[in-house]
Design brief:
149 residues; alpha+beta; Alpha-D-Glucose-1,6-Bisphosphate, Chain A, domain 4; 7-stranded antiparallel beta sheet; 2 helices; globular; START-like_dom_sf; Polyketide_cyclase/dehydratase
């Protein structure tokens, strides 16, 4: 299996603690990724949160629900996650948080491994999710601060 790594950075108009708490709540992941349509079976421990997520892949009128197991490891200035997906796709991702004037800079890093036949598709989907997640986080925190939201 090949492994591919990539990152993006987003600056949010919110305190680091607020961003961390938002991402540490699995229920906030619904819609954060355009694929995640459901979160269930949330299990919280002192340094990790585990949950089951349903990713929905759509092609025209057809859709496939991909059930994945996610573990979020909660650290002081970072959060890392492990995803086990059917088909041999494995994703290790992480968020690094840094306070900047007016908010928080979030670096979203992926390390994805997949069998040869799935690698291109999995990387393409992961990059789309990563870009959408940054945009959605920015939208969510902007909406919290807008008096007309």
């Amino acid at each position: 299996m090949r492994t591919v790594e990539f990152s993006t950075t987003t600056t949010l108009s919110a305190a680091t603690e607020e961003v961390f708490e938002h991402l540490a709540d699995p229920h906030n992941h619904v819609g954060l990724s355009p694929l995640v349509v459901e979160v269930r079976d949330v299990r919280r421990g002192p340094a990790a949160v585990c949950f089951t997520a349903v990713e929905r892949f759509t092609l025209g009128p057809l859709h496939h629900d991909n059930v994945i197991e996610v573990t979020l490891h909660l650290e002081e200035s970072a959060m890392t996650g492990d995803v086990v997906s059917p088909g041999g796709v494995r994703v290790a991702y992480g968020y690094r948080f840094a306070s900047v004037p007016g908010g928080t800079q979030v670096t979203d890093h992926y390390r994805l491994s997949a069998p040869f036949g799935l690698l291109r598709f999995a990387v393409g989907q992961a990059k789309k999710v990563q870009a959408a997640r940054g945009q959605e986080l920015a939208r969510r925190f902007k909406a919290k601060r807008s008096p007309h939201a």
